[in-house]
Amino acid sequence: MIDHQVRVHPSADRLPREEQLAWKLAAVATGTQETGAIDPQVTAMAVNRVIDNASVAVASLRRRPVAVARTQALAHAGAPGASVFGTAPGVRVSPEWAAWANGTAVRELDFHDTFLAADYSHPGDNIPPLLAVAQHTGRSGAELLRGVIAAYEIHVALVRGICLHAHRIDHVAHLSAATACGLGALLGLETATVYQAVQQAVHTTTATRQSRKGEISSWKAFAPAFAGKAAIEAVDRAMRGEGAPSPVYEGEDGFLAWMLDGPEAAYTVALPEADEARRAILDTYTKEHSAEYQAQAVIDLARRLRERTGPLTGVREIVLHTSHHTHNVIGSGANDPQKYDPGASRETLDHSVPYILAVALEDGEWHHERSYAPERARRAETVALWRKISTVEDPEWTRRYHDPDPNKRAFGGRAVITLEDGTVIEDELAVADAHPAGERPFGRAQYEAKFRTLAEGIVEPGAQDAFLTAAGRLAELDTTSLADLFPAVDTEAVAAYDATLPKGLF
């Protein structure tokens, strides 16, 4: 790996494009074509993530935000076009709109892959726009695989090196850059073209984190889909010869100077050498539970505590000692009263670790629908327990969260339960059971089981088998077979739900 130093430059410096971060990202992406054979582990993990995305997408087909995005997309038919989850096999829409609909379906349940470092990310959000463009442009599964690997490489590098959340900037700014790079690798574009596309994408998708603050709305699901759509449009413009604000990262009125650490900003972004294998996807991990990633270990900890103590009664207070990120984003350190509101949206509840811990302690499990049901959130005994739960930042958990060794990194915490009689019950868990360093790491069997569980009643068993077979052959698929990565569902039921929605402009 090469450590690239990134800092703000005045316009008078005339920073050569080859020294700009956007160029270096583009060079890694376009160089992915030249790295030779792909590591079988990398290919296998890419397959896992295609399966994972489809799992959560089919489970969300009749959720309102997903239906809205789908009906918007269906108003933009295009040829050759791309497929949309939940529609008939022959339906095709313009690729940027397919990316919008499919990206929303993948993100809606907050239930797919994650990478946490200096910032947050869901690298699987790159796959919908890449798949849409691959279909539209007649690319093979092998070419799609190259694009996915490149996008993950760039996404992980940016998340490791540049923190956005400290400045209340939403993490989709890194996503759009990664998607533009993945599209460049997929399409075999010149570095100069990808460089311009990256800058356009970052410039147009920089937004605040208000989408994940207070009363969290459905925009949380739309935001990454918007970034994917914007990246496709940026690549299209760059392919037509259009330029972008440059240097978008280092400019004196640019991203670092005014959105992040200011004119004195300096960052280190580590990128692979030209002939180095692209393996960043192996550093990412998925979710066993439908909740924000930093709640994964907390759910498993609650399940373990319940097995040990049985139903808890007479609780005085529960304090979760955890990292800065967990405390300030999904804990009481966020200072969001909505995180304790029984009438809060699902999007808010899945970013409330006090709520998640209360329900997991009571139920000993977590379900992507039942655990968020309004009647579940309003249960009197749950509300009483919920409001006795708080979080505190523990410097040691913060240190472990940022440990340079991924095998030692911790995303959990220590729960201290104090009963009314003074009894104290304590336990801690560093990583979720499904994490690569956890008690039950996810492998292909677990990804397939997750798909079958979420697809039950939505995708017939035979269609489940057909999808899993196609996904397993990702690197061998021809362009017509990419449609097999969309599981067949009861499209009449989906269309009937769509028909209940209010009409928009399209």
Key terms for this structure?
506 residues; alpha+beta; 2-methylcitrate dehydratase PrpD; 60s Ribosomal Protein L30, Chain: A; four-stranded mixed beta sheet; 7 strands; 45% helix; lyase activity; MmgE_PrpD_C
- Oligomer status: single chain
Q: Could you list the spans in which at least 5 consecutive residues all have pLDDT below 50?
A: none
Task: Output the radius of gyration.
Answer: 22 Å
Largest sheet: 4 strands, mixed
Shape: globular
Separation of termini?
47 Å
Q: Number of DSSP helices?
A: 20
Helicity level: 40-55%
Description:
The chain has 506 residues and is α+β, with helices and mostly antiparallel strands. It has three domains: 2-283, 2-methylcitrate dehydratase PrpD, CATH 1.10.4100; 293-429, 2-Layer Sandwich (60s Ribosomal Protein L30, Chain: A); 444-491, no CATH class. Helices cover 45% and strands 9% of the residues. The protein has helices spanning 21-31, 40-59, 64-74, 95-107, 127-136, 141-161, 172-187, 191-205, 219-239, 255-259, 296-309, 324-329, 346-349, 353-363, 374-377, 380-386, 395-401, 444-455, 461-472, 491-498, and strands at 2-7, 77-82, 266-271, 315-322, 389-393, 413-419, 424-429. The strands form two sheets. Strands 5-4-6-7 form a four-stranded mixed sheet. Strands 1-3 form a two-stranded antiparallel ribbon. A hairpin with a 4-residue loop joins β6 (413-419) and β7 (424-429). α1 packs across α7 (172-187), α7 packs antiparallel against α8 and α11 packs parallel to α14. The termini are far apart. The model has no long low-confidence stretch (mean pLDDT 94).
